[in-house]
Each structure stands twice: as C-alpha cells, then as structure tokens.
Task: structure prediction
Amino acid sequence: MGVLAYYLEDEGLATVTVALLRPHVEIIRPPRALWLPFELGRPFGAPNDTVFQSKVLRRALALFERQDGPHILEDFDQDAPNSAPDPDWRCAIDTDPPSFGMRPEDVDPEQLIAAAEAEISAIEIHHEAARRKFGRSAVGLTPWTLAENIAALSGFLRGQSKASWHPDISNAVARRFATDDITALYTEAASAGAGAPNGDQLTLWFWQRTAAGKLVLAGLAKALAGDDRGAKIVAEKFTLPSRLAPKLGL
Amino acid sequence: MVRLADLPESTQKRWRELDCPQFDHSPWVEGPALSQRKIAMVTTAGLSIRGGPLFQGGADDYHKIPEDVPDGNLLISHVSINFDRTGFQQDANVVLPRKRLREMAAAGEIGACATSHYSFMGATDPLKMERNARALAVELKADGVDSVLLIPV
Result:
C-alpha cells in the first residue's frame, strides 16, 4: 500500500495509508500511515461493528489534517473486538466426512465425491439462512452452482477436468475459483447459526469437518503428485492457508 | 490480533524478506480541511464486481467500484488465501468501509465521497503497478478527488 501511496502523492493527491504489517511501512515510509493491530483480511477490525469501524476510519482520516510531514506513522492502540475464538461455538450443520490420509492412494475418490454431493442440500439451506442474516453473500466468482463447483473438483479427482467457463481462465485457475466459492459458501453457511466464531474457527471447520474440505485436500494431493505445472502451482500456493496447514497436520 | 510474531515462521520469513522499495524523494501534498475534502478509497483486496473481470496471478491493473454497486455484488478474487475472508463475507465494510465513509459525508465530517472507489490486487509487486497507479491518479482528479485512503487486506 505504501508504494501506491507514493505514486498517488507524487501525482498530487494527498494520501493516508492504513497498514496491517508495520515493518513494511517503516521501510517504505508513505506520507501518512496508521498501523492497525488487526487480523489480515479485516483492516477495519470487525464485521458489522459500525461504531468500531467508524472509530478506525476517523482516526485514519484525521491524519489528513496533520501538517508535520513528509512521513507520519501512528499506531492504533486498540484490538479489534470479537477477534478471539468463541469457546462455546459448535457448527449447527451436521457433517460426517470420510477420513483419509493425504496421499492420493489413501483416498477413495468415489466415496469422497459421494459424501461431498450428499452434503450439498444441507449446506445450501444453511447458506440461505446466512444470506438472510447478513444481507449478502461473497459467493459468485464462478458462474457455477455449488453442485457444479463440487463437480469441477470431483472431475479432477476422476481425471476428467471440467472445462473453464472462460477462455482466459485456465482449468486449474477455474478450480481455484471454484474452491474459493465452495469455501465461502460453506463458511457463510456455518456462520448462520448462534455464537460468534472467529475466522479460524469457521475455516478450520470447513477443512476438518466437511467432505467438501476433504475433497479439496484430495485434489491438492493429486495435483502435487501429478505433472500438470499449473495445477501444481495452484495446489502449492493458492489453495490451503499456510497458517492453517500445521493445524491440519500437513 | 495478528502481529508479525503471531504468524507461522514460514509466513513471517516471507513477509520479513519481502523487498520493500525506498524512494529518493518524499512527496507531500497539503489540502483543505477534512470537512472540505473529496475522498476516494483504494484497496488491495482484489475486489471484483459480480459478473465482472476477476484478478489472476500477476495482475497489475485495477477494478473500478462505482458507488452505486451494492455490497452484495462485491467479491474477493485475490489470489492469496493467507488472509481472513470470513469478515468480508459478513460485512464488506470491514474491507472497504463505504457505508462508514458515506456516514461521515452525510454528517459533514468530510466534504464528499468519490464517485467510485478502486481495487488493485496486493499480491502483485507494487512497482509493476506504477503505470496504472499514475493513470488512476488522473481518473481520480477528473472526479474532483483530492484525498485518497489506501487500505491493505
């Protein structure tokens, strides 16, 4: 962000940068910066907490009034509310994924695909509840339904790649977007019920407790063992959050 | 809270070793009081509009997000999976606080919101974004924007 601030300020626009990684702004030194001690992915701290979001925004925009440049770096000294795990949260969706090892030969693809397909209707019911609760959904990178996104991953496990919907998007990248949509749909569905799970709780539930999560992991293992370079890159770098891999025993 | 020390060692190493550029001069633009400023927001969250183009690896362009696009049509197509997305799923304002900025404009705390906000994808080397960033500055000034809030993800 600091680099973009430099280009825009150099073009005559005043900038304020909010930063989540303090060491980077210490080096780049944009004109005005506010470091926020929040989780990556949540620069305004907490979803649906309008008071806290406004507090962060006001504090950032106040830096426009400062005249003691050319380099200002301030710290926001309050943690984001509700960022800790909710110890009482249990996902209301009943899932019972089959258990496999991470080697491709450990997986029974048809059993796993059948389990993922069997989850779809329950997940969709809870997802609709989440859509009503939050008034939105972040699912929709692919033009496919949940069943079609699952089919894209199932096809890969069966050695029958589902064709991408767009000529500029490779089949491997299409599967990545399908994975992002599946993950979003499941974690939205899981957040429809009671409790206040944090991001890691929702995400770990997807990877540990659902057949769809296991389906993605099985595809990841197959891609890593195969010779399709594009699929390998997507599997290595753009599928499983690195901070969660140790918690999944990977 | 996620500080660098809270992240896995491999992630810490990657962030620490990231080559951050330094510049040989320090631009500094002054402006009117906050209550007179027209403000745009630029995020690197890799935001796309539902049905529109998606970011792919190495993208150095930006997506325009007109003010009348509802939050329900904002998606994240960022290539990185190493940041939380569940907050955005529940409330887009945790990434791009358009409603909060509109509230400040309505209360007279800022002059006005820009006609559009913008998104790059932060996984790309920002030095490769220079041409598009400078082109964006022209677009922002044509909208009467004088101040920009830059937001990471």
